[in-house]
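Quick review question:
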């Protein structure tokens, strides 16, 4: 079926519908990664957006049962140059078209994605609408779609109740797994998988959980997750992080968590012209000038001159546009990065950041030997799981209902999603 994409700027692009037929509207962003479309489609950070893939062939390797980042598709729609209707991978259990249809999400193919990407790069990210209607009708849909800053997207993607995740390995330092409290602003499954591999277990909390509940849980560190939306509109979350900063506990944030931490430290955030979306973004680590190739997905950044240099230091910068890619609080185990160190999809250059988080929790535990001794004398359920990884693997194969809802399951429930009108 022939269809049209209309941008709020008035530009239009012709294409053909695939996936679920219908209309969709959202903020349009382009992603430059060559692979990883399944992870991108199930990343909660893309809620409210229409994703344009710059790689010419999308759908080649189908959809794999174990590669979901959450329990459903989050973008309002997808746009590709060439939609591959046949899949060529022995692990694929369905095609991209089937995946979109089952989730009632619209796709648009045969689009000149090169011209569309240039339009977005030169004129900036904008709203758009696609479907089989007339161009003027789609233009009205695009202009009436609420801006990202007008919707609380975090509230739409966060878990509605806490759930636990288990360590998949014992900490190299010995003892019980490190307990982490995760604030879910739109957490990806692979982040929890990465922490579990470092010998961490813990609980994932709804975004607006009270600080007292988090601190009373016995967490040895707090993780601030990725997520969608404009950080400038999330002042209540900034206040929560400000209180956590006063608790003298290791804090590690990524993506939206990085931006919210920066605002809690008194910095500001600004919207980038077209954002960073891809698996090939070079970042320089200032401590040793090492370049890391990173996976990124964000439309907002922390201006360099808004950080209080007496309080925080910049640790990473983008080699593409010199924007801040990482910061740390001076003299404290509190830090964050704008990119995704867990990758998925993307390179693994930055996995060391999870190791650093574990080591900071180990240092804190060492400063409280009485607590460590109590754990050793009375092994907890976490310690038992770490001592029996085979059983842990069995549990992972059959996760709880809460874990399944949050995307830590095999992904069988990804078929249900909101209508393709832009809801994340």
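Suggested answer, residue by residue:
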């Amino acid at each position: 079926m022939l269809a049209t994409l209309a941008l709020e700027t008035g530009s239009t692009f012709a294409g053909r519908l695939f996936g679920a037929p219908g209309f969709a509207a959202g903020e349009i962003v382009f992603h430059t990664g060559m692979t990883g479309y399944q992870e991108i489609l199930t990343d909660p950070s893309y809620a409210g957006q229409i994703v344009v893939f710059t790689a010419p062939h999308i759908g080649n390797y189908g959809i794999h049962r174990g590669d979901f980042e959450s329990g459903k598709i989050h973008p309002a729609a997808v746009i590709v140059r060439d939609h591959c209707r046949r899949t060529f991978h022995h692990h694929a259990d369905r095609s991209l078209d089937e995946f979109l249809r089952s989730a009632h999400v619209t796709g648009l193919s045969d689009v000149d994605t090169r011209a569309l990407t240039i339009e977005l790069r030169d004129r900036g990210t904008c709203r758009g609408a696609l479907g089989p209607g007339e161009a003027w009708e789609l233009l009205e849909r695009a202009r009436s779609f609420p801006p990202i800053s007008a919707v609380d997207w975090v509230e739409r993607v966060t878990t509605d109740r806490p759930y636990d995740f288990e360590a998949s390995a014992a900490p190299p330092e010995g003892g019980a797994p490190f307990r982490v409290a995760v604030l879910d602003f739109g957490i990806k499954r692979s982040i929890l998988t990465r922490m579990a591999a470092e010998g961490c277990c813990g609980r994932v909390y709804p975004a607006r959980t009270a600080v007292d509940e988090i601190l009373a849980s016995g967490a040895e560190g707090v993780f601030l997750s990725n997520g969608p939306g404009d950080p400038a509109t999330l002042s209540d979350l900034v206040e929560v992080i400000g209180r956590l900063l006063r608790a003298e506990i290791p804090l590690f944030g990524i993506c939206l968590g990085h931006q919210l931490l920066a605002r809690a430290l008194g910095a500001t955030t600004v919207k980038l012209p077209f954002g960073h979306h891809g698996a090939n973004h070079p970042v320089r680590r200032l401590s040793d000038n090492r370049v890391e190739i990173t996976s990124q997905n964000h439309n907002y950044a922390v201006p360099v001159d808004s950080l209080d240099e007496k309080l925080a230091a910049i640790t990473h910068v983008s080699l593409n546009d010199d924007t801040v890619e990482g910061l740390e609080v001076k003299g404290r185990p509190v830090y964050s990065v704008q990119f995704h160190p867990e990758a998925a999809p993307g390179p693994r250059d930055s996995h060391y950041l999870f190791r650093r988080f574990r080591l900071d929790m180990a240092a804190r535990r060492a400063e409280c030997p009485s607590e460590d001794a109590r754990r050793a004398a009375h092994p907890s359920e976490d310690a038992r799981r770490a001592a029996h990884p085979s059983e842990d693997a069995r549990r992972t194969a059959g996760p709880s209902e809460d874990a399944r809802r949050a995307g830590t399951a095999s992904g069988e429930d990804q078929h249900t999603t909101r209508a393709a009108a832009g809801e994340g």
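Why it works: The chain has 14 helices and 21 strands. The domain at 155-398 is CATH 3.40.50.880 (Rossmann fold).
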